[in-house]
Amino acid sequence: MFHWLEKRPFFFGVGIFIVISFAGLVMIVPHFVEQARPVVGTKPYTTLELTGRQLYISNNCVACHSQLIRPFKNETDRYGSYSLSGEYAYDRPFLWGSKRTGPDLMRVGNYRTTDWHENHMMDPAAVVPGSIMPAYPWMFTNTADVDTGWAEAETVRVVFNVPYNKDIPLMDGSVVQVPLASTVEGGRAEALIEAQAVAAEMKNQDVKDAVAAGKIPEIVALIAYLNALK
Amino acid sequence: MENRPLEYDYTVAKMFLFTTMLFGFIGMLLGVVLALQMAWPEFNTILGDTMAEYINFSRIRPIHTSGVIFGFTLSGIFAGWYYIGQRVLKVSMAESKFLMIVGKLHFWIYFLAILLAVVSLFAGYSQSNEYSELEWPLDIVVVVFWVLWGLSIAGLVGIRREKALYISIWYFMAAFLAVAMLFIMNNIVIPTYFVSGAGSIMHGVSAYAGTNGAMVQWWFGHNAVGFVLTVPLVGMIYYFLPKESGQAIYSYKLSLLSFWALMFVYVWAGGHHLLYSTVPDWMQTMGSIFSVILILPSWGSAINMLLTMKGEWKQVASNPVIKFMVLSSTFYMFATIEGPIQAIKSVNAIAHFTEWIVGHVHDGALGWVGFIIMAALYHMAPRIFKREIYSKALMNTQFWMQTLGVILYFTSMWIAGITQGMMWRAADEFGNLAYSFIDSVDALHVYYIIRAVGGILYLAGFIIFIYNIIKTMSARPVEERDLQNATPMAA
Hints:
Chain A is mainly alpha-helical. Chain A has eleven helices and two strands, in the order ααααααααββααα.
């Protein structure tokens, strides 16, 4: 059979394709729907949070920080309760990472504050002596691309039916809504209101002035995202 | 028929030979920069605060990984294909104008894709999925050059004179098919601009959320490693080692078994990247089991290579090209036993997220991938340029520098990784965490320095390699008959 195949490249190729493709089918297909279902209390990201998430992605924070807490006592002691599949239902792409040069950030919003992030992003070693993390001072002056943040929220609402403007059940039985404006201008206005709340807790005068003038520096969006990680 | 002279046309092979050296240098240089940044974070701002946005660790890291995998390694593979393909199929590229155009177009679009990739990653356009960072417009350019490569394979196979496909061709075909499938499936995104009418046109949102995204990504990520960094290179060593040594492949049956077993088993093993995550337990277990089974086909190929040298081990001492290939096979065996060990769940609990994984990647990438590609270029260059290798002494110097570099790299990263893993889980007498996270960072400083030294040695060796190949282009010309087996080289 193999000698026969070796003289027939087309069937050889077909043979290879069959052998390599079914592993993926068997592993990925059966759980596809079930795994995408959110757990109770999981909310979609707001426009500003998504903008921050895009900055987390474009600056490749995932190279050094995981967002996956494994079910070991030392990890739950250090980072909080272990990860559940449904908590990632609105993460596109997932940001589990594969390397912890720095600590996990899955629930960093539970134990770090806006103030802490502000100081840390400007000069990590000043907050954590011995830190080898680079500083990100340009995030305090660059303006965030809120339009693309809104574009992503609108896209997942339309294409994947992500429940913006709908009741989302919480653990205590109450419901909450995550608003999403229907136009990009509305998205900018919503993001600015969120940004004002973050900037109010910050000290950097340039950032405060920018937000007061209607601009959103990257750092504000990033902190909004980090604070949402719970 | 056997003795009929056939003029092979190496135009396209030569173009890829140059990009192998160019992208290899850039990729490895960035690797050294990253290593220095981890040892001394001041290197993040070495070009001043304004440039730091573009050259800090997090920006450079994907350019290093993509540069080495898709720049250096793919160039080496394509150079190998445009060289080996003609020879084992017994046709010349010069016989078909069409295939020559396809080959050149393949090269230029590939070159364009890599340049755009570098620029866009520096600028921060990234999906941040590992080895799959490029945004959707660039993915389309990648698909174009990949299809052109497929066309080149199909075309050359289509007009072949040698009816039976040699082992190397199996591996090239497999690499083409698997990467095409994986790349397209993993990069399915919805461009947000076209749905919402706002924002950046470059941005796309993944079709897969959360755990599904992780499964598709590591199905891709693991097998991109498999079908770029392993499969075509096994195909290349199946050609270059017998050719260089004048020995027949030790066992045809073993090559057959290893090939089909590798095809079947490899793709399952992606699950070992997701142990103790939120993917289903049975899938994690499958990932572990198949990773261990993967030892068989991997070692099958490697042992087949080493036994090909049976009775001719003296060549290892006399011929540096053989030396590179034998060490390369040895590192392949080494990396393919280390990987399965890390895939065992209880070991993975310590190893995952640590530097040990980085060490594993690099004993594979530097030891196996780097050495086989450099050996392939050393074998091809005299035949392409019809000149002897400029300096055998430089080859030996390079060999030992780089070997030492690899050893420093993986030993330091083993110790660093296990140190991290153990410190994170260490508990004091009351059962509380014994160390804060920053303690584990401080503890690694010395290993980061050793690793940087290892990387610098390897890079220095690579610069010697480039110098040697460039000088070969103007070295003493040789006759066709000198090029049968062992590569001619000046002392």
